[in-house]
């Protein structure tokens, strides 16, 4: 069976004054109908990986890959017009902060409906019905009211649910969620995660969950990729995260203060130069 | 060291008035580390700002080291006693001032002598070293910036440090370094900390006692051991602890 | 020190001295600016303008005031590269001497207007309350009049002449700077670094001069560079209406005005100074664009 998304030796580079800066250096993975976590610190290239898959790396940034297939079909560096048709319909993205992703002068419901119509070409009434259905699916109790609300009239958690509703309306095969809950409070966060979880499993989607929060990823995902300096340094099943082998993963876990394990001093991460330059996957 | 009684803080005027803090009271002893936790909008940062004199619409009583403060005005002595570290190290350093300028201006304002030697000592203390003295903020990483902000707060040799989510904008590995630094400094100088955070694990690690806030009110007082053991009196605090500990997947 | 090490020294991320840090920051800015080709063109034109103005008496082929009625309205030729005007004066020489007048106008206005604007705007934004109200209403009053009309009124009251024209332009062009400075101050005022400085006991004057001004100045410089084109045109407009430079001073606007009666038969009399105004205005615009890349504090370096 072909994987939903297959990435082989993905690279993203930006020319700078002092030469080419490689944000992503040879990332490879296959995504099935699963929740794949991508974890790393800022600058590890985790967000850039998501953007590169969606064709959202702006020039002068350059994306190369040996393979970037969505359901067996190559989508690397497609012309923008074709990519736009693909984005939303078959592969979608939820960003960190809904405030910046929603159009402030259009009602929430209209944005969902328009997005849906754009990809499916259904009638206005059908799109409206679909939008209301999606709002209900993300556990919004009075979809009619939220449909007519403007983005500034909804809270952060509600905004993020609206984003999820909008992104999932056209039934994409793959959803990339980039820190979807980092801007939310814990109580709201868990609710949003649960909604995401339920929708993804009910529709048999593949989910790429990008986050800096190891513990969250360990609990939420099936499989985890740990990224460092643009490379995947370790890949393992989420439930085995606490038995990670790579010193970087271990270091990250140890540096977290934990409620259930008081320590006198927190362990700090001793970065080793070797982590950057270890043999890269996909290169001869 | 710090006593807050019946503190109300509000923003704006009557029909649109927002009450950010409602009759909050707590006391922090000399040498203690006290945490304020809560979700966004619970008013925890606003309390710090009111104490520091960055908000003028408040009522109640704030006493710092026996001195009662009023409104927004603070005495010279206050600035020598109380300093603050802000949440976002990208916003708390002036983009056009070098580290040298930030620290020398601060030391000058605090009426210190031997400024050159003091800058070197401060930079060593926060683990930056003198090589960083003439850098501008854009030449520093987030963690390094926060170290500069800590050095700035220490320049006055204060007794009470207000920490407003000092690590929430940083990566976890950098967070560990900064938290360790703050612990060391406190042990060394016998400082009193009031730390605001949304991260219960960070507060449990750093603080002896804490208050849980919700919608402007303090709803729970507890100590770190109680927090670790999940011994909360109220419903809200219990739920908050449960939600922070783990995400439970549905069956 | 060789070329390479000087560059490395300037670009060092860990400068050792205050001087190295400052020079390094300047060099970074220069590199960003240099990357913008058009801005470099603008800069080159303006450097040329300054050189021409400085050495005008030596460069100009003829005396700009010498009339030769036998040679009036000559087309461009080997002896008069840009032709002659209605009084037989060499247009090229007048343009070269006129560059001094242009630079004087631009320089003076650029010194006065942004400074008034910076002062009014930052004080209003930083103080807030009734100070803000009073200063901004005054600004509004100035903004409510069309600039040229207001300048005309000033010149009419003060009497025509180049000095009064400059004064009128400066006095009428500060309000936009004040608005800009105020808007910037309002965001800066709320920043954490201002709160931090306040906690050290910094007074309002220190905050204003040491913290707010350095951030406002860069956007005002950019704005001023972009406005210079408009100032040149306004000055030329005043000259054209006979309210600026008085004859026989070779001011570019006045020169166009002189040529206007012959514009159909002897086009070069009006076109040459027009071209000069166009080129210099364009240069200022290009320069302003480049400066924006370098100075805009919102888009850090790199």
Automatic annotation (TrEMBL), chain A:
It comes from the Bacteria. InterPro entries: AAA+_ATPase (IPR003593), ABC_Ni/Peptide_Import (IPR050388), ABC_transporter-like_ATP-bd (IPR003439), Oligopep_ABC_C (IPR013563), P-loop_NTPase (IPR027417). It holds the Pfam family oligo_HPY. GO terms for molecular function: ATP binding; ATP hydrolysis activity. Coiled coil: none annotated. The keyword Transport applies. It is a peripheral membrane protein. Keywords: ATP-binding, Cell membrane, Membrane, Nucleotide-binding, Transport. Residues 5-254 form the ABC transporter domain. SUPFAM superfamilies: P-loop containing nucleoside triphosphate hydrolases. One of its GO terms (cellular component) is plasma membrane. Gene3D superfamilies: P-loop containing nucleotide triphosphate hydrolases. The keyword Transport applies. Its main location: membrane. It is found in: Cell inner membrane. One of its GO terms (biological process) is transmembrane transport. Belongs to the ABC transporter superfamily. PANTHER family: DIPEPTIDE TRANSPORT ATP-BINDING PROTEIN DPPD, OLIGOPEPTIDE TRANSPORT ATP-BINDING PROTEIN APPD. This is Peptide/nickel transport system ATP-binding protein.
TrEMBL record, chain B:
It catalyses: glutathione(out) + ATP + H2O = glutathione(in) + ADP + phosphate + H(+). It is found in: Cell inner membrane; Membrane. GO terms for molecular function: ATP binding; ATP hydrolysis activity. Residues 4-240 form the ABC transporter domain. InterPro entries: AAA+_ATPase, ABC_transp_ATP-bind, ABC_transporter-like_ATP-bd, ABC_transporter-like_CS, P-loop_NTPase. Pfam families: ABC_tran. Part of the ABC transporter complex GsiABCD involved in glutathione import. Responsible for energy coupling to the transport system. The complex is composed of two ATP-binding proteins (GsiA), two transmembrane proteins (GsiC and GsiD) and a solute-binding protein (GsiB). This is Glutathione import ATP-binding protein GsiA. It comes from Paracoccus thiocyanatus.
UniProtKB/TrEMBL annotation, chain C:
It is found in: Cell membrane. GO terms for cellular component: plasma membrane. GO terms for molecular function: dipeptide transmembrane transporter activity. InterPro entries: ABC_transport_permease, BP-dependent_transpt_permease, MetI-like, MetI-like_sf, OppC_N. CDD domains: TM_PBP2. Keywords: Cell membrane, Membrane, Peptide transport, Protein transport, Transmembrane, Transmembrane helix, Transport. PROSITE patterns: ABC_TM1. The chain crosses the membrane at residues 38-60, 103-127, 148-171, 220-245, 266-287. GO terms for biological process: protein transport. Residues 99-288 form the ABC transmembrane type-1 domain. This is Peptide/nickel transport system permease protein. The keyword rRNA-binding does not apply. The lineage of its organism: Bacteria, Pseudomonadati, Pseudomonadota, Alphaproteobacteria, Rhodobacterales. It comes from the Bacteria. It is a multi-pass membrane protein. Belongs to the binding-protein-dependent transport system permease family. OppBC subfamily. Pfam families: BPD_transp_1 (PF00528), OppC_N (PF12911). Coiled coil: none annotated.
